[in-house]
Design brief:
The chain is α/β, with parallel strands linked by helices. The protein is built from 14 helices and 14 strands. The longest helix is centred in the middle third of the chain and has 25 residues. It is globular and about 60 Å long. 51% of the residues are buried. Bound molecules: 6-O-phosphono-beta-D-glucopyranose. The site of 6-O-phosphono-beta-D-glucopyranose (BG6) has 16 residues, from loops.
Amino acid sequence: MNKKNVLPVDFMWGGATAANQYEGAWNVGGKKASTADVMTGGSHTTPRRITKHIEEGTYYPSHEAVDFYHHYKEDIKLFAEMGFKCFRMSIAWSRIFPNVDDKVANEEGLKFYDDLFSELKKYNIEPIVTISHYEAPFALTEKYNGWTSREAIDHYVRYCNTLFTRYKDVVKYWITFNEINSLMVPAGAFIAGALLVDDSGIFNNITVDSSQMRFQALHHQLVASAKAVNIAHQINPDFKVGCMINYSLGYASTCNPKDIIKAQKQDQINNMICGDVHVRGEYPTFTKRYFEESNIKIEMAEGDEETLKNGCVDFYTFSYYKSHVVGTRPEGDVTQGNVFGGFKNPYLKANDWGWQIDPEGLRYVLNHVYDRYKIPMMVVENGLGAVDIVEKDGKINDDYRIKFLREHIEQMKEAVYDGVELIGYTPWGCIDIVSASTGEMKKRYGFIYVDKDNDGKGTLNRRKKKSFDWYQHVIATNGEEI
Ligand code: BG6
């Protein structure tokens, strides 16, 4: 492959985070609890609990997280030193509308992001802002059971209006919802702020069949997203608004046509329903049969179809960590993943949390999606969750992370050479933050180490890892030397 100058000169190198995993200060500056703030710590083997209210004496990792709220200047300086062109972050909705239906937005919350954006500006780092990353004010859950109610749309739109107006001149790139297609699986119910209680009273039992509820909530989010795109373009025609899909790549386990169809169906349902609505402005034709066979009836309000049609996104972003296998069960066991799992692939190795590492799958997804939509794409999450050891000399030699990222960047370049319009790359958790699935700190992704453990203890001191210097060089050479 001709590796010279494959990536455009203005390629957006950066890193990605989310407010609830990074900011902390959960009840500071007028902020109130978000849906993420009622999730306890957990581990690879012990699931996180969702509590109905904040329990005294229980550990909630998001409450302090790694305190970006008070460390943002220091962290942004380090991002700038690495050469970041952009920074993907999210705004905590509950910092802006703590009670969700507040008449007036919380000025202190807005001011925090004013300051943060000016700090980014100082270093010419372009913010890429996720409007709702796996959280909403907990008040939305208490008052409306989250996104299951249509009222959520209006609250979200008002929140977007506030952000677009306030940050009109400082933010250009917006993402409406993080991994919106997570609502395809039962665990997605609480991501949409919906509490499930089964007949036995088990709280948020994700084995409760919630598909009707989840798809209705998803429809509300898709309509809300389309409305947001529309308003964004009215407020500033230069705004670029994107979607964000948790790309679930499932290979057919054999060349048995039945397995091929199964893998195709899974791709359609898990990835394409949301992608199509966001990019093409309508539900794809295969949805009709899927909804019929799954007993799902979406309640559409008058005008919804038109709203979707008029609210198509400008770019497509996605997260990519792993792949799995679909179809006849191959030798081996089930494999884990972020939201979507499947069967193990004998050709791949996994990280300590069972996520199978598949750099070539990234090239596959980029080609597959670009062929379908032909709009600019961004990989806004990718990375290796691993336990890092601080050596006696204070160094952190995360060669495994460098290897992971190098191999994925290599495949991104292949995809660009294939003809894909890829405009940016923001590896996940560019600084160590709380893990979304387990609530752990020891599952680290960062180029920057944060001294904090799973029980919430630590100095919060920041320290560069070996990958810090490596990524700095990658950016400096625009990906030519990796
Ligand atoms: C993505 C989410 O699914 O995966 C992030 O958008 C999350 O919020 C990331 O942190 C990695 O998952 P985890 O569970 O390792 O933190």
